[in-house]
Specification:
This protein has 179 residues and is of the alpha+beta class. It folds into 2 domains: 82 residues, Arc Repressor Mutant, subunit A; 64 residues, Double Stranded RNA Binding Domain. The protein is built from 6 helices and 6 strands, in the order αβααββααβββα. The protein has a 3-stranded antiparallel β-sheet. A 3-stranded antiparallel β-sheet has the order 4-5-6. A hairpin with a 5-residue loop joins strand 4 and strand 5. Helix 1 crosses helix 3, helix 1 packs across helix 4 and helix 1 crosses helix 5. The N and C termini lie far apart (49 Å).
Length: 179
């Protein structure tokens, strides 16, 4: 276990965040979390993430396709290091991070599993693509493409998808797949 003493607290904070979120996070997810709560600044976070990658306390998950963002997750060594030094993080900060993870973990998980996008068709309508991805193997469980008459309807469908996706999947599975 090698962790340099300079910016050790920042490394521990980032490891603690990744541990508490319990899912692989994109760089944008990480930056959103730390800057929203001002736990680290943007440049510090990028530097710390790269240092944690170099020490194998964090690893980069391979992209399955070009449209996907790279994700990062804590390694066993990162968890072990954290278990020895987490008390260096102030208790109030640990509690704040834990509460944030409890309150927002589902939202971040959904943002990775329930994907939606829309594109304009030549006739002025919109193509809305809705997907549910299997998080462990990162393959689509379900892909639906629908036509929306206008942009506001397309946006509304994309917005509703993260909330409605589990129910849609359950309905289709129960009514189409014979067990």
């Amino acid at each position: 276990m090698v962790i340099e003493s300079d910016n050790m607290d920042e490394k521990l904070i980032l490891l603690f965040i990744m541990d508490k979120m319990e899912i692989p996070l994109t760089q944008n997810n990480i930056l959103d979390i730390i800057t929203r709560k001002s736990w680290l600044n943007y440049m510090e976070c990028i530097d710390v993430l790269n240092q944690l990658l170099d020490t194998n306390f964090v690893y980069r998950l391979e992209k399955q396709n070009e449209e996907e963002e790279v994700k990062y997750a804590i390694t066993y060594s990162g968890r072990e290091c954290l278990s020895h030094f987490y008390t260096r993080i102030k208790l109030s900060l640990r509690e704040d991070i834990t509460n944030f993870a409890k309150e927002n973990g589902i939202k971040f998980k959904r943002s990775q599993e329930y994907l939606s996008e829309y594109t304009k068709n030549e006739d002025g309508s919109y193509k809305v693509s809705l997907k549910i991805k299997e998080p462990l193997i990162n393959l689509p469980l379900l892909e639906i493409t629908i036509k929306a008459p206008n942009k506001s309807t397309a946006i509304s469908a994309c917005t509703k998808w993260s909330e409605k996706a589990p129910n849609v999947f359950e309905f289709l599975y129960d009514n189409i797949i014979d067990n």
